[in-house]
Amino acid sequence: MSHAAEEPRAPCRLYVYLAREAPIAVVLRRGPSEWARLSLWRTDTDGFEHGQWIRSRVYERRSDVSADGSLFVCFARRAGGPVTAHHPSTNRDTWIAISRPPWFTALALWCVGETYCPGAYFPAGRTLWLPFDAKSPDAGEVPDWLSVEGGPPPHVDRTDNWTERTVHHNRLRRDGWRRVEEERLETWSHADPTGATTLLMTELSDRDFGAYGGPHVVDYAIQIEASNELIPVGRATWADWDHQGRLVVARDGRLVQWEPPGYLHPIADFDRQKPVPEPAPDWASTWPKRSE
User: Which helix (H) or strand (E) is 39 found in, with range?
Assistant: First the structure.
């Protein structure tokens, strides 16, 4: 008896948040479709601490890491199925939460109740921006050393896709990316630490919901400043210069270092991980101490 071939499994999707003041990054892994996981990446040693799974849609473009890498803020929507210990005890199915990576357990949580929300981000070291007037969270509390601000962000997106672009574009601008205005397709540039090469990120589509990693289809290229040569890097779910000045690309569920003309050096493979829910350690339920 012949058996129909199984449909190829799509690789997981990775998105990375680089802390600005420490050699730390948070890796958000999405997949299977209803699951997400956080991992902590120490970019100076390439050591990884794989953390908590959550059965929710975590919106990668509406989330952020603090400057020192000690806090993660995310906008999330509960997936189908029973409520778990990681979800808020409310019938509202979307929320903004701050946690200690690589754990999702909320230190403070604001219920939202709909997806028309741009999420939240850290515009400065000890400041959190929320898309509504600053107020006490619905669960948990905020320490005195963290300032919570509402009101318009530095860059206000006025397109019909503002929920996906507001935090994403403010993070890009904060982290040194610049919009290339003369390009027909939306393109952003980010020079490497030496200024010798520039990473170009082009949005091929922001509405292809059937695309891998969708709805965002993003293409990357390297521009050599001395010769103006353009070297394709290709499609990826994320790419940027890390704290060592390496170009790191997230593709097919893996982090790789990319070197021209296209050499790939493996850093970590996340693709074969499977959801295994577990409680957070005690320390992840308390705020980190304020660093002086």
Answer: strand 36-42
- Give the integer Cα–Cα distance in Å for 164 and 160: 9
**Rounded-to-integer distance, Cα 57 and Cα 79, Å:** 6
Rounded-to-integer distance, Cα 254 and Cα 267, Å = 8
pLDDT in tens, the chain (292 residues): 444 455 557 899 999 999 999 999 999 999 988 899 999 999 999 999 999 999 999 999 999 999 999 999 999 999 764 444 445 545 579 999 999 999 999 999 999 999 999 999 999 989 999 999 877 999 999 999 999 999 999 999 999 999 999 999 999 999 999 999 988 999 999 999 999 999 999 998 755 555 555 578 899 999 999 999 999 999 999 999 999 999 999 999 999 999 988 899 999 999 999 999 899 999 999 999 875 4
Query: What is the rounded distance in angstroms from the CA atom of residue 172 to the CA atom of residue 170?
Result: 5
Cα atoms in the Cβ-side hemisphere of radius 13 Å centred on 197: 20
Contact 68, 21 (CB under 8 A): yes
Q: Which residue has the tokens 């210990």?
A: 85
